[in-house]
Amino acid sequence: MGLTRGMDGAEPLRPQPMEQPAGPREIREDSRSQVMAVGTLACPECDAPVAPGPVPLMPPDPMSCPVCAHGAPVRDFLSLGAPTRPARVQVRVSLAARW
User: Fold this and answer.
1) What phi and psi, each to the nearest 5 degrees, are found at residue 91?
2) What are phi and psi of 38, to 5 degrees?
3) Where are the domains of the chain?
4) Which of 12, 52, 33 is nearest to 92 (CA)?
5) Three-class SS of the chain
6) Can you tell me the distance from the alpha carbon of 70 to that of 87, in angstroms, rounded to the nearest whole number?
7) Most CB within 10 Å of its CB: which of 14, 58, 74, 87?
8) Nearest C-alpha neighbor of 50 from the set 92, 88, 91, 93
9) Residue 79 CB contacts under 8 Å (≥ 6 apart), including other chains
């Protein structure tokens, strides 16, 4: 459905496309987060790998081990040391939303 100026058959009101300038141009990706490190989530007590789930977690968020039921903040389960095991996670730094 287009907006028209009147019933006289005028063209619909649409913004005219701007011409692209010739020569080099800068392209910036709109990225709200960046990968800071790659690590492993494992229980600090029994060393069992822990799946983070589909929701992003923050370091102070609570987490528990599915094997021994040890509970602690996410930061205690995160290991950034090499070598990382197959249960790898990405540690991302993101801009906080402004209210």
Assistant:
1) -95, 115
2) -120, 135
3) 35-93
4) 33
5) CCCECCCCCCCECCCCCCCCCCCCCCCCCCCCEEEEEEEEEECCCCCCECCCCCCCCCCCCEEECCCCCCEEEHHHHEECCCCCCCCEEEEEEECCCCC
6) 18
7) 74
8) 88
9) 39, 40, 41, 42
Given a contact cutoff of 8 angstroms between Cβ atoms, the answer to whether 2 and 15 are in contact is no
Residues sharing a CB contact under 8 Å with residue 93, sequence separation 6 or more, in sequence order: 33, 34, 36
Site of tokens 């822990």: 50
- Taking the C-alpha atoms of 14, 19, 24 and 26 in order, what is their torsion angle to the nearest 10 degrees? -10
